[in-house]
Amino acid sequence: MVDIMPARDPLSEKQIVQFLNSKAFSVGNCLRNQAMFLSQLSFGLRISELRRMTRGAVLDRNGELRERITFTKTKNGRPRTVDFVNPLGRKYMLMWLR
At 6, is the pLDDT very low, low, confident or very high (cuts 50, 70, 90)? Predict the structure, then answer.
């Protein structure tokens, strides 16, 4: 028999912002760490995808965050497209990149 963990409610935006303002993000490159955490949480990015991301892949010619990013090198070897639509994730990503 397999034990299944009960489902958890997703974090509210208030809880996420409280976590981002906690001591966990108070050392080192705070804005980068916040943007990376939110990218994983908001857009479902894997750490390997975050590491391969470039400014050119994320920002368009006008310096605006793209709505959609395609990763060609992925865990399973197939391209994967991610929609960058979460407002909180977009906000922190733009703050970090500018």
Answer: low
Q: DSSP letters along 15-69, please? A: HHHHHHTSGGGSSSSHHHHHHHHHHHHHH---HHHHHH--HHHHB-TTSPBPSEE
Separation CA 61–CA 73 (nearest Å): 23
What distance in Å separates the CA atoms of residue 32 and residue 19, rounded to the nearest whole number? 15
Supply the mean pLDDT for the chain: 83
The whole-angstrom separation of Cα 6 and Cα 41 is 19
46-69: average pLDDT = 87
